[in-house]
Amino acid sequence: MEVHAGSIDEEDDEQGIAHMIEHVAFLGSKKCEKLLETGARSNAYTDFHHTVFHIHAPTTTKDSDDLLPSVLDALNEIAFHPKFLSSRIEKEWRAILLELQMMNTIEYRVDCQLLQHLHSENKLSKRFPIGLEEQIKKWDADKIRKFHERWYFPANATLYIVGDIDNIPKIVSQIEVCCFWTNYNEKASVATTSAFGAMASFLVPKLSVGLGGNSIEISTNTMDQSKTFNKERQAVRPPVKHNWSLPGSIANLKPPQIFQHELLQNFSINMFCKV
């Protein structure tokens, strides 16, 4: 289950909260815990753009002819219905702070410096998924729940099923039974500004988004906090003006020259392309 929410969706006072949700939701799931008795393996990770939960399980066990419904049920609970218990939150922020200490190596710091340089003009340079220690300790269940409600819903996620699958219609039916995609057109009191940020004032009147090509009407009225809209996949992010990490004007730059000196025997160069 790939939820399209990561560290770049965090506000200034939420740095690391997507990673925190990954920990609390995944390790707090009782349904996922029960699957471990079947020989299943599970894990999760958070990056700049995604929160991903994955379960590797057998298709059948001696007690069950079909384990997929249980796997889907566990993913549903993890991604969309976690229990944000205070005891679990405190346990996980301690684990995250330990993780932060363990990954604080010279290689990690070099990678961070590289990313900060390459993306100096955008949010990637300031939103590393691990977050900030001084903020992680302060969040309560209400703070974490609000971020979850903003981003973690089925239309903003992609479900992948890979394996020994023969009956596709049956699989689709099982997905629907688990309520992943049905009954999720509920109205949510979410401000347009919280979903689209600074981009909201630049959107065209109609924007085709989400699954099935539905539309969100964008007008000056939708800026009102009291207005509602369907929760749908976020189709746009604020545009970024790239300076390609070069100081000064880039108008008259010459293309790079490629050569090989006759005495050079061992040499490597890394070239990065920014999308």
UniProtKB/TrEMBL annotation:
Official protein name in the record: Peptidase M16 N-terminal domain-containing protein
Gene3D superfamilies per the UniProt record, alphabetical: Metalloenzyme, LuxS/M16 peptidase-like
Keyword presence, Repeat: no
UniProt keyword annotations, A-Z: Hydrolase, Metalloprotease, Protease, Zinc
GO terms of biological process kind: proteolysis
GO MF term set: metal ion binding; metallopeptidase activity
InterPro entries according to UniProt: Metalloenz_LuxS/M16 (IPR011249), Pept_M16_N (IPR011765), Peptidase_M16 (IPR050626), Peptidase_M16_C (IPR007863)
Protein family membership: Belongs to the peptidase M16 family.
Record-linked Pfam families: Peptidase_M16 (PF00675), Peptidase_M16_C (PF05193)
Domain Peptidase M16 C-terminal residue range list: 139-172
Domain Peptidase M16 N-terminal, first and last residues per copy: 3-120
UniProt-listed PANTHER family: NARDILYSIN (PTHR43690), STROMAL PROCESSING PEPTIDASE, CHLOROPLASTIC (PTHR43690:SF33)
Keyword Hydrolase: yes
